[in-house]
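Query structure, 476 tokens:
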């Protein structure tokens, strides 16, 4: 009898210990912080015609300062990525074996500047933890107002046999296998020489011609496509497909960490039938990591409204990540329509995009309009981007998660931790059970200065923006 009583007591104690351990586990689980949503917040910086940079400024010191001023504004505005046009007219903002230095840097085509432009641009962005996407226009070589005006002299590095002229545009001929190979080699040259985070193409594929023009590619179809394609439209689309597919293949083989993005026109019928860009196929096949449609329209219910276009792209980007392109250049432009005369319209666009789970961020066109700040558009962005965020993972396969920072400690006002190789760090403030933590800041160092009392934890983030589990928490 005593044995049974003793056994019962031991069983009771064991159950209590078990319950106590379970309670502790539940308490730890309940105290686990909720991390804020990640989001890419980007800006396009246009260099064709010097639109955003360097704006006909050919002095290297002031060029650098203009760019730094942009970056400082972006940091202040919690913008974390730029899409910088390094090749807008088959010209280069870097030393290229395929095309000469851009005239928009020095004022003279082919003249080498007195600094490594692209290296400077990337390093200054990375100093501020801003992602740098190298934006290239694939086919455009030069433009003119009409066919009574000659095109600019062709770059001596570009073989004339690879080009094709139309009334207002000269392009690399998309049908030629030599062109398809050349465009891929240009990308490989960039990602091999420079630490870019992404390669970005805009919506210029086959040219959108004047009503009186024809594509004039029957000879190419006869030579390269008639035995494979029943119609010339499919032949054209395949010519672009080959380039898109091979660019991604080259990226994967050369630097798989590089993100490949394309910003198509908002109207996909136009992409498919006029520009011969089969965007949905690229997405279904996984040839493009990120699609950024240019949704430069007002909100509404019409087919061409911001809402309806975004509804469509949210459904048909398949295996690609989706970002939203915003036309901030229209805000304050009296010819753009009534809705673009108020910053409430921009807030409405972002609010609607926020309802789409597929959308992982935004890109603004373009940088100079942030500085011009018509109708106080920056006040809207200050509200929209009011808190800092981490960049999302935009990779093409499952993320490799880095280890969590260990040995979290505080010395005075400095929070510090042990190194996690090949990462930077995000410092968060714990806001209590079931509350979203606050991202206090990011750093490449292993220490961070705290400015207010609270409970803090740290995560490690790798080059692909994959984030570790949280470190242990510590109170200050």
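Result returned for the query:
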């Amino acid at each position: 009898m005593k044995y049974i009583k003793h056994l019962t007591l031991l069983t009771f104690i064991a159950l209590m210990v078990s319950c106590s351990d379970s309670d502790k586990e539940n308490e730890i689980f309940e105290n686990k912080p909720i991390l804020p949503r990640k989001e890419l917040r980007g800006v396009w910086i246009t260099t064709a015609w010097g639109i955003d940079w360097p704006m006909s400024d050919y002095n290297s010191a002031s060029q650098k300062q203009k760019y730094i001023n942009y970056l400082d504004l972006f940091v202040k505005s919690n913008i974390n990525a730029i899409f910088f046009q390094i090749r807008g007219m088959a010209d280069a903002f870097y030393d290229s074996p395929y095309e000469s230095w851009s005239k928009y840097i020095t004022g003279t085509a082919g003249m080498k500047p007195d600094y490594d432009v692209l290296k400077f641009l990337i390093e200054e962005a990375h100093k501020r933890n801003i992602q740098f996407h190298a934006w290239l226009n694939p086919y455009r070589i030069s433009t003119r107002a009409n066919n009574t005006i000659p095109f600019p002299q062709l770059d001596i590095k570009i073989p004339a046999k690879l080009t094709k002229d139309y009334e207002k545009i000269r392009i690399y001929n998309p049908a030629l296998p030599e062109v398809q190979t050349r465009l891929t080699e240009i990308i490989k040259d960039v990602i091999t020489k420079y630490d870019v985070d992404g390669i970005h193409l805009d919506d210029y594929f086959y040219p959108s011609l004047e009503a009186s023009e024809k594509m004039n590619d029957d000879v190419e179809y006869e030579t390269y496509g008639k035995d494979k394609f029943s119609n010339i439209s499919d032949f054209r689309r395949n010519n672009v497909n080959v380039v898109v597919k091979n660019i991604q293949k080259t990226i994967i083989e050369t630097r798989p960490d590089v993100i490949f993005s394309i910003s198509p026109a908002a109207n996909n019928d136009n992409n498919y039938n006029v520009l011969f860009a089969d965007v949905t196929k690229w997405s279904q096949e996984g040839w493009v990591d990120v699609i950024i449609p240019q949704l430069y329209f007002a909100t509404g219910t019409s087919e061409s409204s911001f809402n309806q276009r975004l509804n469509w792209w949210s459904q048909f980007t398949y295996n690609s990540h989706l970002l939203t392109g915003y036309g901030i250049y229209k805000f304050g432009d009296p010819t753009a329509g009534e809705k673009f005369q108020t910053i409430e319209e921009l807030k409405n666009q972002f609010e609607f995009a926020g309802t789409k789970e597929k959308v992982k961020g935004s890109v603004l066109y373009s940088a100079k309009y942030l500085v011009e700040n018509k109708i106080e558009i920056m006040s809207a962005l200050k509200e929209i981007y009011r808190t800092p965020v981490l960049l999302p993972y935009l990779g093409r396969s499952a993320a490799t998660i880095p280890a969590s920072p260990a040995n979290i400690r505080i010395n005075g006002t400095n929070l510090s931790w042990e190194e996690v190789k090949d990462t930077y760090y995000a410092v968060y403030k714990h806001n209590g059970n079931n509350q979203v933590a606050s991202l206090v800041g990011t750093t490449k160092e292993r220490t961070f200065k705290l400015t207010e009392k609270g409970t803090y934890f740290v995560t490690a983030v790798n080059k692909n923006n994959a984030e570790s589990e949280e470190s242990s928490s510590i109170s200050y």
